[in-house]
Design a protein that fits this description.
- There is one protein chain.
- By secondary structure, this protein is mainly beta.
- The protein has one domain (2-199, 215-235, 246-642): Maltoporin, Chain A, CATH 2.40.170.
- It is 7% helix and 57% strand.
- The strands form six sheets. It has a 22-stranded antiparallel barrel. It has a five-stranded mixed β-sheet with strand order 3-8-9-6-7.
- Strand 14 (260-275) and strand 15 form a beta hairpin.
- 47% of the residues are buried.
- GO terms for molecular function: siderophore uptake transmembrane transporter activity.
- Belongs to the TonB-dependent receptor family.
- It is found in: Cell outer membrane.
- Its main location: membrane.
């Protein structure tokens, strides 16, 4: 078990030999030097730009994989829009995700995060699916996300839809506990120049984005970004030695003509993260193309394909290269009155090639693995009465490890009043084996093997979403998950290995709401309570204590937020979160307050100062005592110019 965790655990060991203070000084100088460039730009949006009625009309795609108003969605979805991102003061994408009350976001060190919904959280979390413009971000090494590899210009994000609950029918395996769907802005919305510079006592960044339109029907943008993270420290004040330098660049082009829309976008990234006697190096590139046609009212076809290459040189573990080719087609139509029918098919091929750098400690065998996945799916949403709609869907997905998996889903929604929706859903989802589950071996443990099967989740939910007045909206969801064949460590012929000997039940409630007191003042609140019970399946005898490798979760989480336009050019934002204690390894509960002050100096020039962990000098969020990072109070000064 230690060997498999070593493969994925990216905890760095040595510092990057670049003076952090020097980096901050040079970045601050650059920030001031660029200020005169913002002479003729547009004003950033304000709190009054979106009313609650407009917020409830935000279009989302996560639940139905088609455009729907958030107010009509029969699912537990929280939407983070661009204005939320701007006013959060966040520097990285995981910090933005703290805004979603249905996510548990725990920072493990300078670069690593544990992020999940509804339990089983870990830096190796494997039951959340993450998408960026339809491109799947999970790694088949462990069925999770390397968050340090995912770096975007936050101003280019249109919205982030956080769906908690099973999404297997539309998104396939690994969408067990939820889907994080990141949607970037159309290039037509990002013309002109944006320059961003920031410096603080924990990180600094430089970013630029340039957009244009050579033809009325064609728009493009290009971006480049550099982010430096300083090392964290443990409780004794000793450095964890986890500093990093990350670089990213990319482009997007959109063409719209008549009924057709075309998108082409690509990204490259490279990062060096301190670890051991050398540095962990990661890099990658991707290219995505998408065509869509609005054939008729209610009828749309879309074809998307992408290539992705990810390289990971993990000292003492593996040097890995993963190539992914993915193609998907979907079609929505209204074949009958009151019916919205969606169907599609997809194919993904992944080639994983690696060198085992420390075969005496850990190996993945074979060194080269080809994984194929294909699927077909269909979903029909139809009206039983003018106020009641029913949705039924099914996906058949075939993977290289366990063969054919069936992923059904049924939902019903009752429009109780024009402002209120009552909904219920039942779903089945699976987490298919990863390379670690099947192919990992150590001299002491025969971890992987052909007997590891898919983990199963059967999910039941009931929710209520309402906007009782023009100033107040809220959502409440009750959920129950039955898990079967969860991963365990069992005694097997030849030694210890991964098995499917655990089962469990997860029950809880998640709720959030928003109160717009006035055109200049808004409050947000969120609360999640969950209780997970795990036990050995009948007839099995997993290794004692093996439940801890499934995740580490608090029972209670609370989020409170305030956004206040103090004056026409001055804004104040406050975010308070309380996270309950984690059981194993034990992490004490903590309460953190983040404050941001924003100043619109002139049209197009915005300065902001963000202070994180204001009331707490330092606290841990993840890991075992002694070696874990203690997150310190942080200050970050940022300037954004829009030209």
């Amino acid at each position: 078990m230690r060997g498999a965790r070593r493969l994925m655990n990216n905890r760095p060991m040595n510092p990057i030999p670049v003076p952090a203070a020097a980096r901050r000084r040079s970045l601050a100088c650059g920030l001031l030097a660029l200020a005169p460039l913002a002479l003729a730009a547009q004003t950033a949006p304000s709190l009054t730009d979106l009313s609650l009625e407009q917020l409830s009309s935000i279009e989302v795609t996560s639940v139905g994989k088609r455009v729907q108003r958030l107010a009509d969605v029969p699912g537990s979805v929280y939407v983070i829009n661009q204005e939320d991102i701007r006013r959060s003061g966040a520097v990285t994408l995981p910090e933005v995700l703290r805004l979603a009350p249905n996510l548990h976001v725990a920072r493990a060190d300078a670069n690593q995060y544990a992020i999940s919904a509804r339990g089983f959280n870990s830096v190796l979390a494997n039951k959340m699916l993450v998408l960026v413009d339809g491109r799947t971000m999970y790694s088949p090494l462990f069925s999770g996300v390397f968050w340090e590899s995912l770096d975007l210009v936050l101003e280019d994000i249109e919205r982030i839809e956080v769906l908690s609950g099973a999404g297997g029918t539309l998104y396939g395996s690994n969408a067990v506990n939820g889907v994080i769907n990141i949607v970037t802005r159309n290039a037509a919305e990002t013309t002109g120049t944006l320059l961003k510079s920031g410096a603080g006592n924990r990180e600094n960044l430089l970013a630029g984005r340039w957009g244009g339109s050579p033809h009325p029907d064609v728009h493009w943008r290009f971006y480049a970004k550099r982010l430096n993270m300083d090392e964290t420290h443990n409780a004794a004040g000793a450095p964890i030695r986890d500093s990093s330098q990350r670089n990213a660049a990319g482009f997007r082009a959109d063409h719209a003509r008549g009924k057709d829309q075309w998108t082409l976008q690509g990204d490259v990234y490279q990062a060096e993260l301190t670890q051991g006697p050398t540095e962990r190096r990661i890099s990658g590139t991707s290219l995505l193309g998408r065509w869509a046609r609005d054939i008729a009212p209610g009828e749309r076809a879309q074809l998307q394909a992408y290539f992705d290459r990810a390289n990971r040189d993990q000292p003492g573990s593996v040097d890995d290269r993963l190539d992914t080719i993915d193609i998907e087609f979907q079609h929505t139509s209204r074949p009958l009155e009151r019916h919205d029918f969606l169907w599609g098919a997809g194919y993904r091929r992944q080639e994983d090639s690696l060198r085992n750098l420390a075969p005496a400690q850990l190996q993945l065998l074979p060194n080269h693995r080809r994984m194929n996945l294909w699927n077909v799916f269909a979903q029909d949403e139809f009206a039983l009465t003018p106020d009641i709609r029913f949705t039924a869907g099914l996906k058949a997905e075939h993977n290289s490890y366990t063969g054919l998996e069936w992923l059904p889903n049924a939902r019903v929604a009752w429009q109780a009043t024009p402002q209120s929706l009552l909904w219920a859903a039942v779903s089945r989802a699976v987490r298919v084996p990863s390379r670690v589950d099947r192919d990992a071996f150590t001299p002491q443990l025969n971890l992987g093997g052909p007997n590891f099967d898919s983990e199963i989740a059967r999910v039941a939910e009931i929710g209520w979403r309402s906007q009782p007045s023009a100033a107040v909206s809220y959502s409440v969801t009750l959920f129950h998950h039955d898990f079967d064949r969860l991963r365990s460590v069992d005694t097997q012929p030849g030694g210890l290995g991964f098995g499917n000997s655990y089962e469990g039940q997860l029950t809880g409630v998640e709720a959030w709401g928003r109160w717009k007191v006035s055109d200049t003042l808004r409050f947000d609140a969120g609360y999640v309570h969950q209780k997970l019970k795990l036990a050995a399946r009948a007839g099995t005898a997993p290794l004692p204590g093996g439940q801890s490798q499934l995740g580490n979760d608090p029972r209670n989480r609370v989020n409170l937020g305030l956004s206040w336009d103090v004056a026409p050019k001055l804004e104040l934002d406050a975010r308070l979160r309380h996270v309950g204690s984690l059981p194993l390894p034990a992490v004490p509960s903590y309460t953190a307050l983040d404050l941001r002050v924003g100043w619109h100096v002139r049209p197009g020039l915005e300065l902001s100062l963000t202070a994180r962990n204001v009331g707490d000098r330092r606290h841990p969020e993840w890991g075992a005592p002694g070696s874990r990072a203690e997150l310190e109070r942080a200050i970050f000064l940022k300037a954004v110019w829009r030209l």
